[in-house]
Amino acid sequence: MKKDVLNSRHHQDFKRFQSAIDGCLADLPTKHREKLATLLAHNFQTWNNVSLLGA
Fold it and tell me: Which residues constitute the domain of residue 10?
């Protein structure tokens, strides 16, 4: 959203600004699907047997 709609862009009025955001959100399932999938991946780092009282 920030890169495509907000970053270094000037919108003439609030209606055009809102329209740009709505258009980007509407494109999430199609145009932005691959980018979004990388951001929402389940790649969580886990630690096993970690001492909570570290020195």
Answer: 2-39
